[in-house]
Structures are given as C-alpha cells and as structure tokens.
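Anyone up for a design puzzle?
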C-alpha cells in the first residue's frame, strides 16, 4: 500500500534535496496523522470561498507577512492560483505578454481563456545555456508595441533560481496600466532575508503566486495568491479562485498554510540566519570542486552570468557540462551511492532544492558527495549544443485555435515545417518546448533528440512521444 511504502521510505534516511520544503523534518515541525483534523466546512471553521472567520484571519496574516493588500490560501498548488490570476485579469481574445519560459499552468490558462500570447524571450546565459532573466528593456519594448495587452506574466525565480528585474518590468507595464502577474512558485521564501533577492510583491507585482510547499515548511499543494494591484479589483481574483479551487478544501492543508505563516512570523530571523550559514558552508565546500560547478556558488560567481538579474542561492544547480557525466547520471549516482535525492535533472545539470528545514548535516552530506563524485569524473570537452534557443519559434496560430484542429501523428523527424497541435515538454521543469500553433523547426527537433539522448523523458499532450507528434501542415 502507498501509505506503507511512504512510511518505509521515510525511515530509510535518504537526504531530501527536493520539494516539499518541510523536508519531512518532523524533529523541527512535529508529526502526526491528519485524520483527527481532517474536516470540511463545519460550524466555526469558516469557508474558504467566503471567508469571514478563522480563514479570513489566516489570509490577513499571510498578506501582512508578504506585504500584499490581500492573500488567498491555495490548496491545489500555485497551479490553481495561476489559472485564476490569468482568468481574473483577462477576457477571451485578449493579448497577454508572457515569458516563453512560463510553466504549463500559465500556458493552460492562456489556452482555456482563448488568449493570444506574445512571448517575451528570456536572455540565454552563455556559460550554461539555461534561460536567464527577462530583460526589462525587452519587456518595455514589447509593452510599448502591444499597449492593448491586458496582462504581463513572468516567472521569477525560475526552477533554476534565475530572478528577473520585476521592479523595472512592473514600471514599464504600469505606465500603460497593464498588471503584472509573477509566477513565484519557486520564490515563497523570498523577502525574509537580505541574503536572498527581493520578493515580487515588494518589487511591484500586481499578483504573485507562491508555492509554500516548494521552499517553505508546508505540505504539498499549499500555496498563496498574493494580490497587490491598483489596476483591477480583487473580487475578480476571488471569483476566479472559486472556479479553479476545489469546493472541499482540505483543512489539513489550510492548517499547514497557517502553521507556515506563523513559523515565519515568529522565527524567520533565526531560521533564515541558520539557512544562510548552511548555504555559506556549502559555498566554501563548492570552491573545492574541479569539474562539477554549482551555479552562482563557490568559484562560479554571479558576475559570470550577466544574463541573470538576480539569483536565488537556495537553488543548487549542479552543472556536469565538460565532464563525462550527464545531469540524470549525476542524480542517479547521488541516489545510489550517497542516499541523496535531488529535485530534477536536465541534460547537463541537476538541481538540489534547499530550505530553512534542511539540517546543516544535509548540506554537509551533499557537499561531501559532490566532492567525492567530482574526484572521480573525467573531463570531457563540451561538444556544443544544449543551449536554450534564443530565437522564438514562429507562432502560426494562437494555442487555443491550433489545439482545436484535426491533424496527423508523424515521427518527430518528419515533423519539420509542420504546425504542432499539441504541447511537448519535459517535467520537471514543465516549460513547453513546443506550443500548439508553433512551426516545428530543426532546432526543436534537435533539442528533443538531445534531451531524449540524455535520458530526459519528453511528454506531449497526446502522450505519443517519442514515437509521434500531433501536427498539421501550416
Ligand atoms: C515555475 C512554476 N510555476 C508553477 C508551478 C506549479 O506549482 P504547483 O506545483 O504549486 O502547482 C511549477 C511547478 O513546478 C513551476 O515550476
């Protein structure tokens, strides 16, 4: 049974360098079966969709903590908040300016609301090939050109920890009264310590959606939508949230959100001080790495990455480029030989997610394991490739129009020049490589081949990859 499997796994002592941010740290957070507190909206316990009592108080405390006008507890992750936020700001047919490296949830919001996306392409970091920040000048030019847009959507920080200049992007958008939604699913822990980049709300975002469960002590699916706009009414967001959130919200999750907010209110200074010390110790150890590199840690200083406006030091992106290891191979070695589980792997890097709930010992174990592996890998000249494409694919149709068309299933190699009728992505990170309505180019096909070759499983809407992709002649 799943419960037994999970309990057994918990006893194995594997170091969790992945979500959820509570890190199963029962010594710090307490433990216990949730049956005794799993209720529905009975008398005295308020109603998430019409808060008047204890849940209203929870929302007020969360808003105070993050400095927003209001806050909405979310029990189905940032996903529900992003769907609702886009829905609340846009009407069918609207143009939305969105970063091309947005998460699937933002793309799904664009699809179901029949929006026309105009993409903001992030800069590409020359040293690693990963997506950098959205340049504010680029965003400003796009905003100037598409003044009729009803929303700007940016992901900050990204899965890899790259932060954009949200303040400047908001200034540019607000000049034309366009609200900005920041998908800060990976940034719930920002704003509590000067050692981390500024948080999106205090930088000017109209709405920020944060996954508490990713980087803070909260159960999986716990998140918050933070509303801070003068440009539209929060009742629109409230109404949209009642579409996308369950009508039976879990009080176990709501109480976890409450506990998370309280822990931060009461102990953020000491918890973040300890976290910063742990990260500094890891930094010192990372300086001893000869082949592997940890992005923006150790000898890999942030000034080597001009495409990053800022970087979240809590994300440990371990790069394998220039060695005989791939990202998935590194992840598997850490699992099999060091009992450390990472969050995800891409072709030439793997990501460890850290939080205030990681013990100093976990950081030490990770540093020792990486130094051990580093001593065994061999240098292999980097053979090029593997950089995110800096050019946007040609968008022949908006996603909602393309997704409604009939097409044919062809092998990816035969799809060149065809218009995709489905999404293609790797999960994580859940950023579409191909969007319905885009023309499939040689670069996309080469990237699919490269990712598959590195052991990354690609998914598609119809589920037929790697055999076929659903498309049509443009
Ligand atoms: C950038 C980004 N946004 C949103 C989400 C969705 O978050 P959640 O899992 O809390 O629904 C994810 C999930 O990984 C993500 O990476």
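Challenge accepted. My sequence:
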């Amino acid at each position: 049974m799943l419960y037994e499997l999970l309990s057994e796994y918990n006893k194995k002592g594997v170091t969790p360098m992945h979500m959820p941010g509570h890190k199963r740290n029962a010594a710090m957070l307490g433990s216990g079966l949730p049956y005794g507190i799993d209720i529905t909206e009975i008398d005295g316990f308020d109603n998430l969709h019409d808060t008047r009592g204890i849940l209203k108080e929870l929302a007020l405390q969360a808003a105070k903590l993050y400095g927003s006008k209001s806050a909405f507890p979310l029990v189905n992750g940032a996903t529900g908040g992003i769907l609702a936020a886009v829905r609340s700001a846009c009407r069918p047919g609207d143009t939305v300016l969105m970063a091309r490296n947005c998460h699937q949830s933002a793309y799904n919001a664009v699809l179901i609301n029949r929006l026309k996306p105009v993409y903001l392409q992030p800069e590409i970091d020359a040293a690693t090939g990963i997506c950098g920040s959205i340049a504010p000048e680029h965003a400003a030019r796009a905003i100037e050109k598409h003044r009729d847009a009803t929303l700007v959507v940016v992901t900050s920080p990204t899965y890899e920890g790259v932060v954009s200049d949200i303040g400047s992007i908001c200034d540019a958008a607000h000049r034309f009264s366009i609200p900005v939604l920041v998908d800060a699913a990976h940034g719930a822990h920002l704003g509590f310590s000067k050692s981390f980049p500024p948080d999106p709300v205090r930088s000017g975002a109209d709405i920020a959606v944060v996954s508490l469960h990713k980087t803070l002590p909260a159960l999986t699916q716990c998140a918050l939508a933070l509303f801070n706009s003068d440009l539209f009414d929060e009742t629109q967001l409230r109404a949209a949230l009642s579409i996308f959130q369950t009508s039976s919200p879990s009080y176990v999750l709501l109480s976890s959100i409450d506990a998370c907010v309280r822990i931060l209110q009461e102990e953020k200074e000491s918890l973040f001080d300890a976290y910063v010390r742990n990260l500094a110790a890891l930094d010192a150890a990372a300086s001893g790495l000869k082949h592997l590199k940890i992005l923006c840690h150790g000898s890999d200083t942030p000034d080597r990455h001009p495409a990053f406006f800022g970087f979240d030091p809590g994300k440990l992106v371990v790069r394998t480029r220039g060695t005989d290891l791939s990202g998935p191979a590194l992840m598997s070695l850490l699992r099999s030989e060091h009992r450390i589980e990472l969050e995800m792997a891409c072709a030439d890097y793997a990501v460890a997610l850290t939080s205030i709930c990681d013990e100093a010992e976990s950081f030490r174990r990770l540093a020792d394991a990486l130094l051990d592996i580093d001593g065994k890998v061999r240098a292999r000249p980097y053979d090029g490739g593997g950089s995110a494409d800096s050019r946007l694919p040609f968008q022949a149709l908006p996603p909602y129009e393309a997704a409604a068309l009939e097409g044919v299933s062809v092998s990816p190699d035969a799809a060149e020049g065809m218009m995709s009728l489905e999404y293609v992505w790797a999960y994580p990170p859940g950023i579409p490589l191909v969007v319905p309505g885009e023309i499939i180019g040689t670069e996309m096909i080469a990237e699919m081949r490269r990712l598959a070759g590195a052991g990354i499983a690609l998914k598609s809407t119809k589920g037929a990859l790697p055999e076929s992709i659903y498309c049509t002649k443009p």
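A detail worth pointing out: The pocket of pyridoxal-5'-phosphate is lined by residues 77-79, 103, 105, 155, 159, 183, 185-186, 211, 223, 428-430 (CB under 6 Å).
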